[in-house]
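F.,

This is the one I mentioned.
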């Protein structure tokens, strides 16, 4: 499912909520508590981040608008990802990991609801027999060739700092 589309922008993937209009929100919400999600490039898992249940994808300008909130809440100390000069589409999907069967990829999602709380989106029932399900991965999907920086925000010089770079070669 398409989440956002960008044209040559620095894009930040923030593993936490944004506080706006007396509400905590995210571009997508996994659950109402801490939970991991994975970043995939061309269906291959490239990085796993822990979030407070919310994930936001934003431009540098949007990031700068919310950085005081991130700092006040201590959320800015979490790892985040940056996609420098990113052009393309970013999507969301859920992958159910199946015993002895092909994994089940679901991309028809209601992004206004917690992904884990949607009907049929747990190993307890819905799309499959629970004995065949090993668990679920909540995925942020990126296109082939995307360069990713794992970084942390540096309040002293008001910028992000890359810890390592990696990309998928064409």
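My design for it:
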């Amino acid at each position: 499912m398409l989440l956002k589309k960008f044209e040559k922008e620095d894009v930040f993937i923030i593993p936490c909520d944004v506080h706006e209009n007396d509400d905590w929100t995210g571009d997508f919400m996994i659950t109402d508590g801490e939970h991991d999600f994975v970043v995939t490039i061309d269906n291959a898992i490239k990085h796993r981040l822990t979030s407070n249940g919310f994930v936001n994808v934003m431009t540098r300008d949007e990031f700068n608008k919310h950085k005081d909130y991130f700092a006040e809440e201590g959320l800015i100390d979490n790892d985040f990802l940056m996609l420098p000069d990113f052009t393309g589409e970013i999507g969301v999907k859920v992958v159910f990991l199946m015993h002895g069967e092909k994994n089940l990829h679901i991309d028809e999602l209601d992004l206004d609801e917690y992904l884990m709380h949607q009907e049929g989106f747990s190993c307890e029932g819905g799309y499959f027999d629970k004995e065949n399900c090993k668990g679920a991965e909540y995925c942020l999907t990126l296109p082939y060739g995307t360069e990713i920086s794992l970084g942390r925000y540096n309040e002293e010089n008001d910028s992000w700092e890359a810890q390592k770079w990696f990309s998928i070669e064409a």
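The chain has a mean pLDDT of 78.

Talk soon.
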